[in-house]
Amino acid sequence: MHPRIHAARNPDQAAAIRSDTGETLTYGALEQRANRGAHFLRSLGIQAGDTIAIWLPNVLEYYEIYWAAQRAGLYITPISTKLTVEEVAYILRDSISRLLVTSGDIAELGAFLDVASASAPDLRHIYALGAGHGTLPGWDAIADFPADPIADESAGFHMVYSSGTTGRPKGIRLPLTGGPATEPHILAERQANRYGTGPHSIYLS
Predict the structure, then answer these.
(1) Are 120 and 86 in contact (CB under 8 A)?
(2) Predicted confidence (pLDDT) per residue in 63-98, tens digit
C-alpha cells in the first residue's frame, strides 16, 4: 500500500527507524513532508516525466524525497555513495536528471561540484540536506510549502542503474502509467506475493 494509506489509518506508526540512533519517521510525518517536497519540486519547474537523482547515505530523508518525487510523477534515480565522480556524472547525464539531492557527507561531492556544469548539462538544481553545504541551498526549503497534495499528482517510478561491471552502468526507464499516485506499486506487490509481507510487517535492511 502507498504510504498515504498508512498515514490515513495509522499516522503515528513508524514508517522507518534508524537502528543506530533510534530516530523515527512516522507515516504521518512522511506524508506531510512528501507533499511539501512535491510542491517544492513543482516550484522548480520539474514536471511529470522528468528525472531527479538522489545521492545520499542511509538517512531518513531518503524516504521523503523518494515519495515526494513518486507522487509528482517523476523518475527517481538513486546513486551509490561508492561511485566515482566520473560514474556519478555519467548517470546524471544519461538519466537526464534535472535535480540532485545530496549531502555534505558524500566524500566525492566537492570534486563533483567542480565539474557538474560541464559533465551534467541537464542538471539544473543541486540541493543538500540540512541547511545546505557550502554554496548549495538546503532541501529544508520544503518547509515553506503546503502539506496537502499537489493538484496534478501521478505515479512516478524509480530508474535504477546497474553497477556497470561489464561497461557503463545501464538504466531501464519503464513507461509511467499516468495513474494516481496511490496505484499499486509493481515491486511492492511482487514482494507481498512472494514473501507474504503486509501492512504490519517489519523489514530490516
Answers:
(1) no
(2) 999 999 999 999 999 999 999 999 999 999 999 999
